[in-house]
Amino acid sequence: MKINVLDRGYVRLVDHMGGDLAVVNSARVSYAKESKQLTDKDVKLIKFLAREGHMSPFRHATVQLEFYAPLMVARQHWKYVVGSDHTMDAWNEASRRYITIDVENYIPQPLEWRSKPEHSKQGSGEPVDESIGREATERLLRQIEQGIKDYEWALESGIAAEQARLLIPSAYGMYTAYYWTASLQSVSHFLNQRLAHDSQYEIQEYAKAVYELVKPLFPVSLEELLKS
Protein backbone atom coordinates (compact mmCIF):
# COMPACT_ATOMS: atom_id res chain seq x y z
CA MET A 1 0.00 0.00 0.00
CA LYS A 2 1.42 3.38 -1.02
CA ILE A 3 0.34 6.98 -0.47
CA ASN A 4 1.66 9.74 -2.72
CA VAL A 5 3.04 12.86 -1.05
CA LEU A 6 4.00 16.28 -2.47
CA ASP A 7 4.81 16.35 -6.18
CA ARG A 8 6.89 13.17 -6.56
CA GLY A 9 7.16 11.63 -3.10
CA TYR A 10 5.41 8.75 -1.38
CA VAL A 11 5.28 6.56 1.72
CA ARG A 12 4.82 2.81 1.21
CA LEU A 13 3.98 0.17 3.80
CA VAL A 14 6.52 -2.61 3.22
CA ASP A 15 5.83 -4.91 6.17
CA HIS A 16 4.66 -4.99 9.78
CA MET A 17 4.82 -7.25 12.81
CA GLY A 18 2.07 -7.63 15.38
CA GLY A 19 -0.98 -5.55 16.14
CA ASP A 20 -2.94 -4.44 19.18
CA LEU A 21 -2.91 -8.05 20.40
CA ALA A 22 0.91 -8.11 20.36
CA VAL A 23 0.93 -5.11 22.69
CA VAL A 24 -1.51 -6.81 25.05
CA ASN A 25 0.31 -10.13 25.14
CA SER A 26 3.76 -8.61 25.64
CA ALA A 27 2.32 -6.91 28.72
CA ARG A 28 0.43 -9.97 29.99
CA VAL A 29 3.45 -12.26 29.72
CA SER A 30 4.53 -10.92 33.11
CA TYR A 31 1.62 -12.91 34.53
CA ALA A 32 2.07 -15.87 32.14
CA LYS A 33 -1.19 -15.00 30.38
CA GLU A 34 -2.10 -14.62 26.73
CA SER A 35 -5.12 -13.34 24.83
CA LYS A 36 -6.21 -15.05 21.62
CA GLN A 37 -8.42 -12.21 20.44
CA LEU A 38 -8.83 -8.60 21.54
CA THR A 39 -11.46 -8.09 24.23
CA ASP A 40 -12.81 -5.05 26.06
CA LYS A 41 -10.49 -5.96 28.93
CA ASP A 42 -7.54 -5.87 26.56
CA VAL A 43 -8.57 -2.46 25.25
CA LYS A 44 -8.65 -1.16 28.83
CA LEU A 45 -5.15 -2.54 29.33
CA ILE A 46 -3.84 -0.71 26.24
CA LYS A 47 -5.42 2.51 27.45
CA PHE A 48 -3.79 2.05 30.86
CA LEU A 49 -0.36 1.35 29.38
CA ALA A 50 -0.48 4.43 27.14
CA ARG A 51 -1.91 6.71 29.83
CA GLU A 52 0.66 5.70 32.44
CA GLY A 53 3.62 5.79 30.06
CA HIS A 54 4.43 2.07 30.13
CA MET A 55 6.02 2.00 26.69
CA SER A 56 7.87 -1.33 26.48
CA PRO A 57 4.82 -3.34 25.26
CA PHE A 58 4.46 -0.92 22.34
CA ARG A 59 7.98 -1.81 21.20
CA HIS A 60 6.88 -5.35 20.34
CA ALA A 61 4.83 -4.11 17.40
CA THR A 62 6.78 -2.74 14.43
CA VAL A 63 6.31 -1.36 10.94
CA GLN A 64 8.62 -1.10 7.97
CA LEU A 65 7.99 1.86 5.68
CA GLU A 66 9.64 3.07 2.50
CA PHE A 67 9.91 6.83 2.00
CA TYR A 68 10.70 8.82 -1.11
CA ALA A 69 11.17 12.32 0.22
CA PRO A 70 13.18 15.53 -0.25
CA LEU A 71 16.37 15.62 1.79
CA MET A 72 15.00 18.42 3.97
CA VAL A 73 12.24 16.02 5.08
CA ALA A 74 14.54 13.00 5.37
CA ARG A 75 17.03 14.84 7.59
CA GLN A 76 14.27 16.13 9.87
CA HIS A 77 12.91 12.60 10.08
CA TRP A 78 16.37 11.16 10.78
CA LYS A 79 16.64 12.92 14.13
CA TYR A 80 13.82 10.69 15.41
CA VAL A 81 16.19 7.78 14.95
CA VAL A 82 19.38 9.27 16.38
CA GLY A 83 17.44 10.91 19.20
CA SER A 84 15.39 7.85 20.08
CA ASP A 85 15.37 6.85 23.77
CA HIS A 86 15.37 3.15 22.82
CA THR A 87 16.91 1.03 20.08
CA MET A 88 13.91 -0.15 18.10
CA ASP A 89 14.66 1.82 14.94
CA ALA A 90 16.52 1.00 11.73
CA TRP A 91 17.30 3.23 8.74
CA ASN A 92 18.75 2.36 5.33
CA GLU A 93 19.07 4.89 2.53
CA ALA A 94 19.90 4.77 -1.18
CA SER A 95 23.55 5.69 -1.78
CA ARG A 96 24.81 7.66 -4.76
CA ARG A 97 28.28 6.48 -3.84
CA TYR A 98 27.49 3.06 -5.31
CA ILE A 99 24.89 3.77 -7.98
CA THR A 100 23.76 6.60 -10.23
CA ILE A 101 20.09 7.32 -9.63
CA ASP A 102 17.98 9.70 -11.68
CA VAL A 103 18.00 13.11 -10.00
CA GLU A 104 14.55 14.29 -8.97
CA ASN A 105 13.81 17.41 -6.98
CA TYR A 106 10.91 18.80 -4.99
CA ILE A 107 9.79 21.86 -6.96
CA PRO A 108 7.17 24.09 -5.31
CA GLN A 109 4.79 25.71 -7.74
CA PRO A 110 4.46 29.54 -7.73
CA LEU A 111 1.52 29.55 -5.30
CA GLU A 112 3.25 27.09 -2.93
CA TRP A 113 6.11 29.33 -1.78
CA ARG A 114 5.52 30.57 1.78
CA SER A 115 6.58 33.77 3.50
CA LYS A 116 8.65 33.91 6.67
CA PRO A 117 6.52 34.25 9.84
CA GLU A 118 6.23 37.65 11.49
CA HIS A 119 6.80 36.59 15.10
CA SER A 120 9.02 33.52 14.89
CA LYS A 121 12.52 32.62 13.72
CA GLN A 122 11.35 29.32 12.26
CA GLY A 123 8.42 27.97 10.31
CA SER A 124 6.52 29.84 7.61
CA GLY A 125 3.61 32.17 7.12
CA GLU A 126 1.17 32.94 4.33
CA PRO A 127 1.94 32.30 0.65
CA VAL A 128 4.10 34.92 -1.01
CA ASP A 129 2.86 37.00 -3.91
CA GLU A 130 2.43 34.87 -7.03
CA SER A 131 4.97 36.89 -9.00
CA ILE A 132 7.63 36.22 -6.35
CA GLY A 133 6.67 32.55 -6.24
CA ARG A 134 6.93 32.30 -10.02
CA GLU A 135 10.41 33.85 -9.91
CA ALA A 136 11.48 31.45 -7.14
CA THR A 137 10.28 28.42 -9.14
CA GLU A 138 12.08 29.65 -12.26
CA ARG A 139 15.33 30.26 -10.36
CA LEU A 140 15.13 26.80 -8.79
CA LEU A 141 14.54 25.14 -12.16
CA ARG A 142 17.54 26.97 -13.66
CA GLN A 143 19.80 25.77 -10.85
CA ILE A 144 18.58 22.20 -11.19
CA GLU A 145 19.03 22.16 -14.96
CA GLN A 146 22.61 23.44 -14.77
CA GLY A 147 23.50 21.18 -11.87
CA ILE A 148 22.26 18.06 -13.65
CA LYS A 149 24.30 19.00 -16.71
CA ASP A 150 27.41 19.37 -14.54
CA TYR A 151 26.70 16.05 -12.76
CA GLU A 152 26.24 14.19 -16.05
CA TRP A 153 29.40 15.81 -17.45
CA ALA A 154 31.38 14.57 -14.45
CA LEU A 155 30.12 11.00 -14.87
CA GLU A 156 30.77 11.02 -18.61
CA SER A 157 34.28 12.36 -17.96
CA GLY A 158 35.07 9.38 -15.77
CA ILE A 159 34.84 11.04 -12.36
CA ALA A 160 33.82 8.60 -9.62
CA ALA A 161 30.13 8.65 -8.74
CA GLU A 162 30.98 9.30 -5.08
CA GLN A 163 32.59 12.62 -6.12
CA ALA A 164 30.39 13.46 -9.09
CA ARG A 165 27.43 13.65 -6.71
CA LEU A 166 28.96 16.85 -5.28
CA LEU A 167 27.69 18.59 -8.40
CA ILE A 168 24.09 17.48 -7.89
CA PRO A 169 21.95 20.60 -7.42
CA SER A 170 19.44 21.67 -4.79
CA ALA A 171 20.60 19.41 -1.99
CA TYR A 172 17.64 20.17 0.29
CA GLY A 173 15.08 19.55 -2.44
CA MET A 174 16.62 16.44 -3.96
CA TYR A 175 14.60 13.28 -3.42
CA THR A 176 16.08 10.30 -1.63
CA ALA A 177 14.68 6.84 -0.92
CA TYR A 178 14.99 5.10 2.43
CA TYR A 179 13.50 2.37 4.61
CA TRP A 180 12.44 3.14 8.18
CA THR A 181 11.69 0.22 10.50
CA ALA A 182 10.37 1.37 13.85
CA SER A 183 8.43 0.27 16.88
CA LEU A 184 4.91 1.51 17.44
CA GLN A 185 6.24 3.70 20.25
CA SER A 186 8.69 5.37 17.89
CA VAL A 187 6.07 5.85 15.19
CA SER A 188 3.66 7.46 17.65
CA HIS A 189 6.37 9.83 18.89
CA PHE A 190 7.07 10.91 15.31
CA LEU A 191 3.36 11.42 14.65
CA ASN A 192 2.77 13.37 17.86
CA GLN A 193 5.52 15.78 16.84
CA ARG A 194 4.95 16.07 13.10
CA LEU A 195 1.17 16.03 12.86
CA ALA A 196 1.23 19.20 14.94
CA HIS A 197 -0.17 22.23 13.13
CA ASP A 198 3.05 24.22 13.63
CA SER A 199 5.40 21.62 12.13
CA GLN A 200 6.85 22.17 8.66
CA TYR A 201 4.20 21.62 5.98
CA GLU A 202 6.21 19.13 3.94
CA ILE A 203 6.94 16.77 6.82
CA GLN A 204 3.35 17.14 8.03
CA GLU A 205 2.24 15.66 4.73
CA TYR A 206 4.53 12.66 5.24
CA ALA A 207 3.28 12.24 8.81
CA LYS A 208 -0.31 12.18 7.53
CA ALA A 209 0.62 9.42 5.10
CA VAL A 210 2.31 7.41 7.87
CA TYR A 211 -0.78 7.79 10.04
CA GLU A 212 -3.09 6.55 7.24
CA LEU A 213 -0.90 3.50 6.67
CA VAL A 214 -0.30 2.57 10.31
CA LYS A 215 -3.67 3.34 11.90
CA PRO A 216 -5.50 0.28 10.44
CA LEU A 217 -2.77 -2.01 11.79
CA PHE A 218 -2.94 -0.77 15.39
CA PRO A 219 -6.29 1.05 15.69
CA VAL A 220 -6.58 1.00 19.49
CA SER A 221 -2.92 1.44 20.41
CA LEU A 222 -2.20 4.27 18.03
CA GLU A 223 -5.28 6.22 19.07
CA GLU A 224 -4.24 5.98 22.73
CA LEU A 225 -0.58 6.81 22.08
CA LEU A 226 -1.52 9.93 20.16
CA LYS A 227 -3.48 11.13 23.19
CA SER A 228 -0.46 10.87 25.48
UniProtKB/TrEMBL annotation:
It is an enzyme of class 2 (transferase). Keywords: Methyltransferase, Transferase. Signal peptide: none annotated. PROSITE patterns: THYX (PS51331). Its EC number is 2.1.1.148. The keyword rRNA-binding does not apply. GO terms for molecular function: thymidylate synthase (FAD) activity. This is FAD-dependent thymidylate synthase. The lineage of its organism: Bacteria, Bacillati, Bacillota, Bacilli, Bacillales. One of its GO terms (biological process) is methylation. Residues 112-132 are annotated as: Disordered. Pfam families: Thy1. Gene3D superfamilies: 3.30.1360.170.
